[in-house]
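Following up on my earlier thread - several people asked me to post the actual chain instead of describing it. Fair enough. Here it is, all 154 residues.
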Amino acid sequence: MAFHIVLVEPEIPANTGNISRTCAATGAHLHLVRPLGFDTDDRTLKRAGLDYWHSVHIEYHNSFDEVLALFPQSRFFYASTKANKTYSDFEYRDGDLFVFGKETKGLPQELIDANLDTCIRMPMTDKVRSLNLSNSAAIILYEALRQNQFPGLT
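Reply from S.P.:
Thanks for posting it. Predicted structure:
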């Protein structure tokens, strides 16, 4: 098994490229939910992922419901600045999925409302609206890996 990063309608190719590199480095699976705000052959996307694309387990989905259907027994955690709990409030298990929304709007409010118990945020000052998507994904993924003694990593 592995951890999963799910990007719902990502808009900025460099962020997705950076996240793909993090997935390659950690063995996490990357799920991209359409519509994407870029072409997958975008130069910026490929540059951010460098030459690690062959090492990324990546899947494309036409809706978030497709992802839910693929993992009916798995736990989903929803990253949102509107969450009450922080990402460090949970004990993560192999196979957990971390869901992130588009850069300009985040996750849809109805998705957050339906999953309040598993919404997570990163503490920050009130001077900043949010962290960069690729930084957020890396912070949460590495916390999950740390809690599990970095399985399979050296």
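Residues 4-147 form a domain with the Alpha/beta knot fold (CATH 3.40.1280.10). That should answer part of your original question.
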